[in-house]
Amino acid sequence: MTVPVPDSPAAHSALPPPGSDPEWYKRAVFYEVLVRGFADSNADGVGDLRGMIDKLDYLQWLGVDCLWLPPFFASPLRDGGYDVSDYTAVLPEFGNIEDFHEFLDEAHARGMRVIIDFVMNHTSDQHPWFQASRSDPEGPYGDFYVWADDDTGYADARIIFVDTESSNWTFDPVRKQYFWHRFFSHQPDLNFENPKVREAIIDALRFWLDLGIDGFRLDAVPYLFEEEGTNCENLPRTHEFLKEVRKVVDTNYPDVVLLCEANQWPADVVEYFGENGDECQMAFHFPVMPRLFMAVRREQRFPISEIMAQTPDIPDNCQWGVFLRNHDELTLEMVSDEERDYMWGEYAKDPRMKANIGIRRRLAPLLDNDVNTLELFNALLLSLPGSPVLYYGDEIGMGDNIWLGDRDGVRTPMQWTPDRNGGFSTADPQRMYLPLNADPVYGYQVTNVESQLRNTNSLLQWLRRMIQVRGQHPTFGLGSYAEIGSRNPTVLSFVREFGDDVVLCVNNLSRFPQPVELDLRRFEGYTPIELTGRVEFPQIGVLPYMLTLAGHGFYWFELSKPTEPVVEETEDWASATSSAVADSLLAAGVVSDTEETPTDESGGTR
Amino acid sequence: MTAEPRTALTDLFREWIPQQRWFGGKGREWAGVTEDGFFLDRGNPVLSVHRVRIEYTDGGRDTYLVPLSWRDQHAEELESALVGAVSNEGRETYAYDAMRDRESTAPWLIHLAQGSSIGPMRFSPADEGHIPEGLPGDIVSTEQSNTSLVYGQEAILKLFRRLEPGLNPDVEIHRALRATDNEHIAPLLGHVEIDDAAGGEPATVAMLQTFVPNASDGWRLATASVRDLYAEGDLHADEVGGDFAADSRRLGAATASVHADMAQVLPTEEAAHDWFATVARQMSERLDAAIEIVPQLAEYAEGLRAVYAAVAESDEQVVRQRVHGDLHLGQVLRTATGWIILDFEGEPARPLVDRRELDTPLRDVAGMLRSFDYAARHLLVEQPEDSQREYRAQEWAARNRAAFCAGYSEASGLDPCGESPLLRAFEADKAVYECVYEARNRPHWLMIPLQSLSRITDRD
Ligand SMILES: Nc1ncnc2c1ncn2[C@@H]1O[C@H](COP(=O)(O)OP(=O)(O)O)[C@@H](O)[C@H]1O
Ligand SMILES: [Mg+2]
How far is B175 from B171, CA to CA, in rounded Å? Predict the structure, then answer.
C-alpha cells in the first residue's frame, strides 16, 4: 500500500522548541492507538513500536497532533496492559526502549507529540514490588500495598467491575492477609500513604519524561488514597499528590501535559484541574459522549444542552478531552439509571454488547454504519468544547467483534488493506493476537485505509478535511461556547468565539430534514461563510436567521465581521425631527398631550 | 376630547385592525369606532398609544390597544408595519405598528424601570429582577391574541391587545408566585396598567417577564417524538429512541409543583356540595350549544351526558384553587434544566371574571392529556387511513399520558388520573370545545377530538 505523503514539508512539521508552546494541548487533535493493534513489523502477529513508526506518515497525513499510547509496559496482560509489572520496561513483544525512543523521535520530526498511559493506582500482582510485599511483610516493600487482616475496611467504596469482582478485598494465601484492589483482584492498589511509594512512582514518571515524552494520561487517579468512612474517591490527599507530580513536570519538563482519567461528573472532575490549574491540565469529559448518543437517538438537543449547562468553567490553562469511543466500553457510569437503561436498550440490543457498566462497541456499528450519522457525530466531536480524541480505526469506520471476550471486541487489528491480515501483519493469520474483523460490512476486505484513500468521499478523507478545517480556526480549541436558542428542539446550535474567530455550528439531530430559525441578532451585519466549501450565506440581520438542514445534517460557519461599521444616527438630528412630528400630531389632534408623573429629565424622551 | 380631525385615524383603524391576527372580532360588522391616544415617547420615532373602542352591530363592544410610531417620511423597511398616513396642513405623517418598529420598542422598558405614570398608563416594576433597559425588542413571530416583544435574551414583553377591566390573571398569578421561587415559571419583571376613563377598574396592558433562552416548546418536542415513532413502523412507543415519556414525567412533576405553589399563595376553597352539579350542568349546556355547530357531536351526546351525570353525583373531596386554565404542550417550554410553564391567562376567549374563578387542578391535567392526544394524532390529519399508525398514535398518547400522571402524582402525592369522573368529564368537555374550534377553523382536524370523544364515551 502506498502511504500518503503528508502535505506539509517535514521542515515545517517538526515541533516548536520546548517551552514555546505550553498550551499546545488546547488546540490538538489526539489519536488513541494501541501498539498491539496498529502494525506488526516482525511478523509475530502482534503490533509493535517499529510497526507504528512505519505508520506515522499516515497519522501525520490525517492531521493528528498527538498520539496517546495505552500501556505498552511489561505486563502479564490480564487487563490489556493496565496491569503493569515493570514501570520502566517495554513489553518485549512490542520492542524495547530503543524502539520507543526512535518512535518518539520520528513522531516529533513529523510535528506529532506522544503521551503515554501511566497507571499509578495499582500494579499487576506479578510486579516484583507485590511479590516482595506478600512474601516479606517486614521487608522494604512490605508496606507498598494496602494490607489488612480482614475484609471489612473501606466498606463505603463501590465495586467498579461488578461483572467480575464481588469485593474490593482479596485474601492472599502467601501473606495470609487481605489486599485492597479497586479494580481486578490481580491488580493490588499501591499504598500511597507510604512516601516510598510516592517516590517510586515519581521516579518512574521521570524515566519517561527524560526520554522526551510529551505527557501522561494518568489512569484511574481518583482512587490513589483511601480513607475510612469515605467512598475512597477524590480524596484531598490524592489531589495533593497530583499537585506534587505537576510541580515536578513544570519545573523540569516544559510543554508536558497531564491528562487525568477520572470517570466522574464534570463538577467533580474539575477538582483535578486544581483551583488555579495547578493539577492536571486536561481531563476527560465523560458524560458528553453518552449524551451525544442519547440526543441523536431522541432527536432532541436537550441531553447535550443539559450536560453542557452543567459543565463548570475550568481554569484558563486547562482543557477537556472529548471522545466518541475509546478502548474501553462506552461508559454509562455518568448517566442516571433511567438513562442507562435507555442507552442499553438503544445501543446494546444483544447482551454480549454490554460490559461492566457500558457498551462494548465501536462507533460505526453503534450508528448502524450510517454515513450521515457518523459524520454528524464526528462533526460534534470536532466542534464541541475540548480537544477531540479519536480512536484508531474509527476514522475508517471499523467494526467490532462482540464475540471476543472482555473489551477485546473493539481492539482488533487495524485494517490497512484488503490483503491478507488486512495489511496489519505478514504472519500466519492463525497467529494474530486477535482475529481481524472479517464481517461482510466492517471486515478488512471492505473497510480499510487503502480503499478509503482512493475514494475522495470516504469517511477517512472527509474526516481529514474536517480536521484541517478545524485546524484553521483556533476557536475550536480555545473559544468560548454558547448555545444559540431556537424553537426547534431537534437542532443544536452553538457559537464558538475566540477574539475575532467566530464559528457557528448548527447540527440537526433528527433523521428528518429540519428548518431552524436562529436568533443571531448579536451578530447583526456578519456574513456566515460555510467552512468546507467557503460559500457565503446571506448576511445576518435582525430577523431570525433561517436555515434548513438535511436529516442529520450540520453546518460549520465562520461568522465574518462586517467591514463597514454600522453608522449610528446622531441624536441631534433625531430629536429635531421628532419634536416636529410630535407637534404636528398635536396640532392635528391625533394625539393628546400627556403629563408624565413623576418626571425625570431623561424620562420618555430617549 | 377633540372630535373632528380624529376621523383620519379611526378611518385607518377601520381598514387596518380587521387584518391583524390579534383582532378577535373577525367577521363581525362594525357599527362605530372611537379612539383616544396619548404620547408614550416623543423621541425618535414618536410613540403614541391608542385605545380603540369598537362597537359591533350585534351590540357587543371591545376596546383594543394600539401603539403607533410616527415618522415624517415613509420608511421603506417598515412597509409591512405601515398603518397609514394622516395629513395636517398638507403634510403627511406616517403611522406604523409600533410593535414591529424596532426603534420604538425601548420606551416600554425604560418606563417600567422608572415606574413612570404617563397619561392614564401606569408602569409597575416587580420588586426583584433586572429590567434590561436600553435593549430594543423584536416581535415574536407566533403572534396570536397578544403581541410579544423579546428584548435580547433577557426579557419578553407581552402586550394584551384587548383591554378588559381587572388585573390579568397572567400578571396576578406570576406576581403571587414570585414569593415561592418556583423553578418552573419565568419570573415576572413588571407590568403596565391603564386607567379606565369612566372610572372603572384599570385594565392590564402589558406584562414583562424573564425570557427563557434556548428553549423549545413542548409541542415541538412531542411531535418530534411522534414523528420518530411513525418512522419506525414496527417498534412500539416504549422502544423507539425518540421516546418522550421521561420528559412527560418531568412535565407532570413540574405541573404539580406549580399547582401546589398556587394553592399556597392564592385563595383556595373546599368545593361546596352543589359545585359538582353546577359544573355538570355547565358542561351539559356547552354540549347542547356545541351540537348546534357540530352536528357530528350528536352521536356522542348520550354517552357524554352520562359522563357529566357521574360528576353531578360525585362525592369527591375537592379543594378549589386557582389554576392555569389553558394548559397544553404549546404553553410549556423545555430548557436545559427542565420545564417552564407559561401563560397563566386562561382561555383568552372567556371573560376575565370567569378566568379568575377557582377551579380544580384536574382542569389543567385534562388540558395536558388532551394535548398528548393532539400531538399523537396531528400527523394523521389529511393522511390516507392507516390503522398501523392509528394504533401507534394511541399507544404514544397512552404512554405519555400515563407518564405525565405518574410524574404528577410522584411530586404531589395525588394521582390525578385514577378513576376520577371529574377528570374524565373535563377531558370530554375540553374535546367538545375543541370540536367547535376545529369545525370553525380547521375542519379537517375535527377528527382528532371526535375520535377522542368516541374513546371517552366508550370506556365502560
Ligand atoms: N418567558 C418566556 N421565555 C421565552 N419564550 C417565551 C416566554 N414567554 C413566551 N414565550 C414564547 O412566546 C410564545 C407565546 O407566549 P404566550 O405567553 O403563550 O403568549 P400567547 O398568549 O400569545 O400565547 C410561547 O410559545 C413561547 O415560545
Ligand atoms: Mg488506591
Answer: 6
What pTM value is reported for the model? 0.82
> Closest residue (by CA) to atom 11 of ligand 1?
B140
What are the residue ranges spanned by the domains of chain A? 24-123+193-474, 124-189, 479-560
Closest residue CA from atom 18 of ligand 1 = B343
Q: Could you tell me whether strands A177-180 and B319-321 are parallel, antiparallel, or unpaired per DSSP bridges?
A: unpaired
pLDDT bin (cut points 50, 70, 90) of residue A406 is low
pLDDT at A357 over 70: no
Superfamily for A479-560?
Golgi alpha-mannosidase II (2.60.40.1180)
In angstroms, what is the span from residue B213 Cα to ligand 1's centroid?
11
Q: How do A113-119 and A491-498 pair as beta strands?
A: unpaired
Looking at ligand 1, which atom is closest to the CA of residue B143? 22
- CATH of the domain spanning B103-210, picked from 3.30.200, 3.40.50, 3.30.70, 2.30.42: 3.30.200
Q: How far is Cα A81 from Cα A406, in angstroms, rounded to an integer?
A: 13
The whole-number pLDDT of residue B5 equals 47
For residue A10, what pLDDT is reported? 44
Residues with CB under 6 A from ligand 1: B 140, 142, 144-146, 148, 156, 158, 186, 209-212, 215, 217, 330-331, 333, 342-343, 345
> Does the beta carbon of B27 lie under 8 angstroms from any beta carbon of chain A?
no
What does pLDDT average to over chain A? 88
Q: Which of A302, A521, A584 sits opposite B91 (nearest CB)?
A: A584
pLDDT in tens, B407-418: 999 999 888 887
Q: Per the CB < 8 Å rule, is A489 touching B334?
A: yes
For the stretch B65-118, pLDDT in tens is 999 999 988 988 899 999 999 887 788 899 999 999 999 999 999 999 999 999
**DSSP per-residue string spanning B216-283:** EEHHHHHHHHHHHHHTTTT--TTTSTT--HHHHHHHHHHHHHHHHHHHHHS-EEEPPHHHHHHHHHHH
Q: Which residue of B has its CA nearest to A588?
A: B88
Which CATH topology does A124-189 take?
Oligo-1,6-glucosidase; domain 2 (3.90.400)
Q: What is the mean pLDDT of residues A62-66?
A: 97
Class of B216-457 per CATH?
alpha beta
Strands A596-597 and B61-71 come out as: unpaired
Interface with A, mutate which of B121, B210, B216 (most A CBs under 10 A): B216
Lowest mean pLDDT among A10-24, A357-371, A377-391, B423-437: A10-24
Does the domain at residues A24-123+193-474 carry the CATH identifier 3.40.630.10? Answer: no
ipTM of the complex: 0.73
Asked if A299 is an interface residue toward chain B (Cβ–Cβ < 8 A), one would say yes
